[in-house]
Design a protein that fits this description.
The chain is mostly beta strands and 284 residues long. It contains no helices and 24 strands.
């Protein structure tokens, strides 16, 4: 299966795609921009909202939660207003937030990485209840892709530095994780694990930086089920979208690759799930 060009986004490092309000959204991390484009690839817009924007997720109140080099902010897209709501890592200038997602309860989970490449300098957090940050664990090299099972009992997680796809038993109501284990060891020849999404059948679609592919793994056994070939080398993340949630949108990075920094798409024959909205009510 091969992905085709969806949009020449001109990004340096496109990441974190989200399908929301019949629109595809994504971030360009080093540019600090939140981007959006229509379902046909047209109408590309972007706004500079941070220095280094790791992730952006929609909220129940209609705003966007942004995770950047200092912590979390809320963005009113229409007005362009950005309000800082958490400075959790502002005292650690060598770190920034990377990938993040909202769970079905409305809490945001995301982690950090070191700007100078120091191994195991980052951490993984949960945010809920008016901005309270609860650190889940330390010793993270590059906190990356994550998603939650429909039964709310499993968190799938990637620390790119560990070169594996892992999972945890999750109690989302309590905001706790347990029983960390490896689902898939990623072979060197396949590239480095990056962003991911789950489909409606509970299987994991994992972007592979340096691997020119998104690979699908059984969410229970870790067996490889499918592979999507991508023209760009550095594949960063993916999400399902479109009217029927059956289009897989794929982000990539440039860094000297003429095929990179663009968005690609394919229809792999399965559907995804609607995005979870962050509960921003306690932040006014």
């Amino acid at each position: 299966m091969k992905a085709e060009l969806f949009l020449d986004a001109g990004a340096e490092l496109a990441e974190g795609p989200v399908w929301h309000d019949e629109t595809l959204w994504w971030v360009d991390i080093p540019a600090g921009t939140l981007n959006r484009g229509g379902p046909d690839g047209g109408g590309h817009e972007k706004k500079k909202v941070a220095g280094l924007l790791g992730a952006a997720v929609p909220t129940r109140g209609g705003r966007w939660l942004l995770a950047d080099e200092d912590g979390l902010s809320l963005l009113d897209w229409a007005a362009g207003d950005v309000e800082r709501v958490s400075d959790v890592i502002s005292h650690e200038p060598s770190l920034r937030f990377n990938d993040g997602k909202t769970d079905p309860t409305g809490a945001f989970w995301g982690g950090t990485l070191s700007l100078d490449g120091t191994r195991e300098a980052g951490a993984f957090y949960r945010f809920a209840g008016g901005g309270s940050a609860v650190k889940q664990f330390n010793a993270v090299t590059c906190s990356n892709g994550l998603d939650f099972s429909d039964d709310q009992q499993t968190l799938y997680f990637v620390d790119t530095g560990a070169k594996k796809l892992e999972c945890f038993d999750a109690d989302l109501a309590a905001g706790t994780l347990a029983s960390r284990r490896t689902l898939v060891d990623i072979p060197e020849a396949h590239g480095n694990p990056d962003g991911l999404t789950l489909d409606a059948e509970g299987n994991v679609w994992l972007a592979l930086w340096g691997g020119r592919a998104v690979r699908c793994y059984d969410g229970r056994t870790g067996d490889e089920l499918a592979r999507v070939e991508v023209p760009a080398e550095k594949v960063t993340s993916c999400c399902f979208g479109g009217d029927d949630l059956q289009t897989l949108y794929i982000t990539t990075a440039a860094f000297g690759d003429p095929a990179g920094g663009k968005l690609y798409a394919c229809r792999p024959g399965v559907a995804g799930r609607a995005v979870n909205l962050f509960d921003d009510a306690a932040w006014g």
